[in-house]
Fold ABC transporter ATP-binding protein.
Amino acid sequence: MFEYEPVTDTLGSAGHALRLDMVTKHYRSPGGTVQALNGVSLALEDGTFTAVMGPSGSGKSTLLQCAAGLDSPTSGRVVVDGLEMSGGTEAQLTRFRRGRIGFVFQHFNLLPTLTVLQNATLQLRLAGKRIDRAHAVQVLTRVGLTERLDHLPAQLSGGQQQRVAIARALITSPRVMFADEPTGALDTRGARDVLALLQEAVRIDGRTLVMVTHDPVAAAHADQVLFLADGRLVGRLADPTAAAVADTMTRLTDQVAGGRVNEGV
Ligand SMILES: Nc1ncnc2c1ncn2[C@@H]1O[C@H](COP(=O)(O)OP(=O)(O)OP(=O)(O)O)[C@@H](O)[C@H]1O
């Protein structure tokens, strides 16, 4: 029996792969309390690609960590696949994430002593699931790594390592995939390949993707861009172009510098 109860309130989660209701996150630091997130609410439909942007320190990584169940909000709730995730023990959260949530990190987070195939199937192994080698090879073929199954991460380029990380996330068939600066450590070509694969995960497999990025070109691959400033959502751009994203970011950064965040972008 699963520990988390389905959400049956009047706000309605139907069709929403991910929903955040008034999520706040406060950190205690030597200088006092930092309000990293200040009442963030959003609802993302199935099979959509959302980029999250904002000035440094605006709360992007905190938002991703809380939405992905890697950290707990101070208040508010996170609903994935119609089930509330907030709260619970670390073991319960880990079980909840399995099969629902995939994560792609900026620095790949591969284990250096495991091969490509072993890294890609690690989550299944940790969950005690049977490894379907044919399926794993199929996913690795799709990300262009058929010839590299027995290589170690150190024998791969950055772009190839990130493709292993994408395969690792895809193999568990998650409802929602989170990517934190997935192209931040890659050259232009590596970044382009990774963005194409992430787009494919949404368009072909119907995954819901949330990606934090500083790069307007990367953000322009998404269906929409959400802008954060001082821990609040302050704007949204649908069908973004790189130029429109860059322009909005410039205005937002100027507003933050001038203390005019509440004007919206
Ligand atoms: N563990 C922590 N302890 C204390 N403060 C934290 C912690 N993590 C984040 N913060 C603070 O919370 C705020 C939001 O940080 P966060 O990393 O989410 O921002 P960001 O938008 O991702 O920034 P960047 O673009 O620079 O990566 C910042 O003021 C940061 O200093």
